[in-house]
Amino acid sequence: ENVSGPNTSPSEWAADGKLNILLAGVDEGVGRWSLRTDTMILLEVDIASGRSVMYGIPRNLENVPLPPEAADAFPCHCFPYPNLLNALWRDAVNRPTAYPYAGSDYVRGFKALEGAVGQYLGLHVDGAVVVNLMGFVHLIDALGGLDINVPVAITDNQYSRPQDGRNTVLHIKAGQQHMDGYTALAYARSRHQDSDYGRMSRQQAVLVALRTQLHPCSLLPKVPDLISALGSAFWTDMPIDQAPALVALAEHVGSGNVKNIELVPSVTGNPVGFLNIPRLATVRDIVAHGLDGVPPASSGGGSG
Fold first, then answer.
1. What sign for the dihedral angle of Cα 298, 301, 303, 304?
2. How many angstroms separate the CA atoms of 236 and 227, rounded?
3. Which one, out of 133, 160, 203, 237, has a CA that is 20 to 30 A from the CA of 41?
4. pLDDT tens-place string over residues 272-281
5. What is the pLDDT of residues 239-278, one digit of tens each?
């Protein structure tokens, strides 16, 4: 089954009553060539109620289905992307005729990723928000830091610093903390002490913590300056001129009405190490019921 590709018309985003945004963190930075989309989270928001769910998507998925417009990307014409999902961006950049999306190489890579994630989850992706390593650091610092409760101490003896790519020993204590940008990135990005799946859980916790401490209306006047300061470290195909409408919706998305779902083997039924066989029916059923049990916003609808 194929679902429609990403919608880029500003007047039609979330026309189905759901706002689905792909949140991507890329490892672009000093000492790295090109980039990989190592962090992929799909945020689904029910516009009428503010109920929300975040789906953590493993970077090492293989054979994720491609959308119809990329049917000729491989000789078999059979749609699946045979490599790791976090390498799809680079493949789309290197082979423009196989991924016929308008725009620059950079844009084409993320349009391809939106299409594949939509096919995997069985839903329509309205747009993406992308930030690289130093962009995340600058964003957290510009917002005054991050208040977060760390449930378990983190020690990583091989943490690669974003500013220069050098390995260092990272230690983050358990308990309530106020983190600067570098520390927040390290907390969300470190994985040697546990796994990609442990990192996925921390990344979702960071997003919830950010939402808890930020009031969307107070953030709205800062949006142009934030985007300007981030420069090339930030990219989105969401219509910036509709930021007020998005902020009105964000007011109804609080930490108490967001569910976290990590599409890891223990959830999807994939044997560990066999993510090259996507359980599409299982994943799409999980997504179809993702908002079940999520309470609506206490302050009413989020239609803005």
1. negative
2. 10
3. 160
4. 655 566 788 8
5. 877 777 777 787 777 667 788 899 988 888 876 655 566 7
Q: Say which DSSP state 136 is in.
A: H
Residues 6+ apart with CB under 8 A from 204: 41, 54, 56, 260, 262
| Mean local confidence (pLDDT), 156-180 | 88
> Each residue of 115-163: pLDDT tens digit?
999 999 999 999 999 988 888 888 888 888 999 999 999 999 888 888 7
Task: Report residue 63 as tokens.
Answer: 């054979």
More confident residue, 8 or 243: 243
φ/ψ (deg, to 5) at 66: -95, 155
Q: What angle do CA 234, 235, 239 make, to 5 degrees?
A: 125
Q: For residues 82 and 79, what is the distance between their CA atoms, to the nearest angstrom? A: 9
Residue 25, helix vs strand vs coil: strand
End-to-end CA distance of the chain: 33
Q: Read off the pLDDT of residues 212-231 as tens digits, 9 standing for 90 and up.
A: 887 766 776 777 777 777 77
pLDDT at 8 exceeding the cut of 60: no
Distance between CA atoms of residues 215 and 211, nearest Å:
8
Tokens, residue 263: 């599409």
Among residues 195, 181, 109, the alpha carbon closest in space to that of 144 is found at 181
Closest to 202 in 3D by CA, of 29, 41, 28: 41
Cα 159 to Cα 166: distance, rounded to the nearest angstrom: 8
Query: By the 8 A CB rule, do 150 and 211 touch?
Result: no
Please answer whether residues 276 and 34 qualify as being in contact, where contact means their C-beta atoms are separated by less than 8 angstroms.
no
Q: Which amino acid is at 192?
A: H
Asked if residue 258 lies in contact with residue 53, where contact means CB atoms within 8 angstroms, the answer is yes
Token pair in block for residue 243: 């930021």
